[in-house]
From TrEMBL:
<dbReference type="InterPro" id="IPR009057">
    <property type="entry name" value="Homeodomain-like_sf"/>
</dbReference>
<feature type="coiled-coil region">
    <location>
        <begin position="114"/>
        <end position="145"/>
    </location>
</feature>
<feature type="domain" description="HTH araC/xylS-type">
    <location>
        <begin position="439"/>
        <end position="537"/>
    </location>
</feature>
<dbReference type="Pfam" id="PF17853">
    <property type="entry name" value="GGDEF_2"/>
</dbReference>
<keyword id="KW-0804">Transcription</keyword>
<dbReference type="GO" id="GO:0003700">
    <property type="term" value="F:DNA-binding transcription factor activity"/>
</dbReference>
<dbReference type="InterPro" id="IPR018062">
    <property type="entry name" value="HTH_AraC-typ_CS"/>
</dbReference>
<dbReference type="Pfam" id="PF12833">
    <property type="entry name" value="HTH_18"/>
</dbReference>
<feature type="modified residue" description="4-aspartylphosphate">
    <location>
        <position position="60"/>
    </location>
</feature>
<keyword id="KW-0805">Transcription regulation</keyword>
<dbReference type="InterPro" id="IPR020449">
    <property type="entry name" value="Tscrpt_reg_AraC-type_HTH"/>
</dbReference>
<dbReference type="InterPro" id="IPR001789">
    <property type="entry name" value="Sig_transdc_resp-reg_receiver"/>
</dbReference>
<dbReference type="InterPro" id="IPR011006">
    <property type="entry name" value="CheY-like_superfamily"/>
</dbReference>
<protein>
    <recommendedName>
        <fullName>Stage 0 sporulation protein A homolog</fullName>
    </recommendedName>
</protein>
<comment type="function">
    <text>May play the central regulatory role in sporulation. It may be an element of the effector pathway responsible for the activation of sporulation genes in response to nutritional stress. Spo0A may act in concert with spo0H (a sigma factor) to control the expression of some genes that are critical to the sporulation process.</text>
</comment>
<keyword id="KW-0175">Coiled coil</keyword>
<dbReference type="GO" id="GO:0000160">
    <property type="term" value="P:phosphorelay signal transduction system"/>
</dbReference>
Amino acid sequence: MDNTNKMRLLIAEDEYLERQAIRLILERAGEPFEVVGEARNGRQAVYLAKDLQPDIVLLDIKMPGMDGLSAARDIRNILPSSAIIFLTAYNEFDYAQEALRIGVVDYLLKPIRAQELVEVLKNTRLQLLREREEQEERKKIQEQLAEALPWLRVNLGLSLIWGLWEERSAVERQARLAKLDVLPRVAFGVCMENRLEDNPAVLTRFELLRYQLQGLVEEALSRHPCGICLPISDRMLIGLWGSREPEQEQCLCCLANDIIETAADKLSLGVTVGLARFCEDISQLPRAAWEAQAAAHLGMFYLGPERVVHVDELEHKVDRDGGVYTAREKELLEVLRSGDVEKIRQVFREFLISVFDNPSADLYLIKARLMGVLVAYSRSMGHMGDQDEEMIQVYNKFARQLSLCHSVEEMESWLMELVLAGNSYSGDQGGKPVTEAIKRALAYIHENYQRELSLTDLLRVIFLSPGYFSRAFKEQVGCTFSDYVLRLRIEKAKKLLVETDLPVGEVARQVGYPDPNYFSRVFSRAIGMSPSRYRQM
């Protein structure tokens, strides 16, 4: 007999001979069933079911005292995953109906035929095994989801603050998987005070503090319907928050103060929390993340730790407390607006000299002051309003890039990219026209037209968003990027067809079309005749 996944049976039957007959049938069948108990009435059946925990209960409907129907209801409450099979000599419709309502798996009429009983039990066993496998699979999925929950939340949070989502329904589905009851409505930044020294022990302690602070923020957020904590850089965390409470701004301020007090009490660590404006829609979260990071970073370096700073009061607060921008920073802002690359390099180096006059100066201080320059520059270029959500995403990327700079040279390159992005956007609003970025784009196209060329590859080189670049390119060049590439390739092909004896297929390859047939179709549409005909003409 196969004892694998043996099923435990309880027989509830008031007739002794009937119980013995069932035992004999099962012994002769040789199937993996074990009779673990016998009951003479319904009350005893309920008691034994609770005590023995059988997989299958064979239950006579008509028994003295508590009948089988009543016993089945109680057993179903005690053992919801067990299978109940009714045995009865009465073929009445009411019994069958009630059996279905209780959830009985089958209904056998007496006298019971051995083959029929064995078949019913075998089918019931297979059904129970399938249900257990499905239950085990569901349990594994739930365990995997629980393990993946931190990753799911971080993935959702990053897609929201970077604007990397397309359909709101997909965001809502991810939020449900991440066990978030509501979508976030605001962002806040948590900036750690600087404790870095050129000492491995101190660095290790700082890494531990950063990990502990993230856990502290996550614990504070866990008490809200939506709370996501994102480590953005070595000293900055971004929190996304949402609530159904009526006084949301007051609740957010309480959360911020709670984080500050808990970090001081439990970690002896000073942090500054920067608050963004609330969002009407999740599409505004990239702006909110940018505001939160800027407020926390600037608040820490110009006001000190253990402060809550709202982005709307930032400039007023820091100006009142001594002024944010030195003469060098103001000069740097002016040349950034001008777009003069060489002048920017010169003023940036003078700015560095002024920073390093401070004995305690380090890269973090430079980053903090450049963050202030970035905020002031974005506002002076008119890019901080709600109507400029796309550009907010660009400045948000610049804020992230600045936090990842590890040398003065990287910061200088960062500034060059910043002025190109800022001036390119102002060009399509009637300001200074784009020059340097488009020149670089055209040079890149002419150098790479012979291979597969995509707008994505180009934007990685000049660091502009697709929308800004497309508008600026069309203004400056007079056509779209794809039209320009097409015209350039056709002109190069015409020259090769006239000046060389290369086969048409080779001409196609040399101008960026690996498929000669496709090249012929493109050429014919552009010129009005095939490449071969053009060569003859």
